[in-house]
Design goal:
The chain is mainly β and 149 residues long. It has one domain. The strands form 2 sheets. Strands 2-3-11-8-7-1-4 form a 7-stranded mixed β-sheet, with no helix packed on it. The longest helix has 10 residues.
């Protein structure tokens, strides 16, 4: 008998990548509408963002405000430390309109954001938390989609 860890029962985000909407050549949804493929412009690619393992969270809440229903999507990561180069790079990213791709420890990759409704970011520094909390968020009519490679 063998008991193995079931990663899909306790998903951990192990990889986060961003792509500016300015660097998107094309987006396409699968026919079922549950997955999206993203092709970056020539010479551009997804930018990986290091984050403290085990400190990343994704929340997706369905909100019905009696006028319409939407998903409030939020990915929060912890970028450790305090150095000027990282601070400048993160502040620069906070001005971008983004697509955000994240991968769970199970290998499942999700993406949220699109050209008409991009993700925005907010950065907060806290010595208590040991670095910068970077929050990527948006309101959307659809949940985060599976990413097609």
């Amino acid at each position: 008998m063998s008991l193995q860890k079931l990663y899909y029962l306790n998903p951990q985000i192990c990889k986060v990548e961003i792509l500016s909407t300015l660097n998107v050549a094309s987006l396409s949804l699968t026919t079922d509408g549950n997955s999206m493929a993203v092709e970056p412009r020539t010479g551009k690619d997804w930018i990986p963002i290091y984050s403290t393992p085990g400190k990343n969270t994704f929340e997706e809440e369905l909100i019905d405000d009696q006028v319409n229903a939407y998903f409030q999507q939020k990915l929060e990561i912890m970028y450790p430390g305090e150095d000027l180069a990282s601070q400048a790079a993160l502040c620069n990213v906070s001005n971008w309109r983004l697509l955000v791709k994240f991968t769970y420890s199970s290998g499942l990759t999700k993406v949220f954001g699109d050209l008409k409704n991009p993700v925005v970011s907010k950065i907060h520094f806290s010595t208590e938390k040991g670095g910068r909390v970077v929050t990527f968020s948006r309101k959307s009519e659809v949940p985060a989609l599976n990413f097609v490679f």
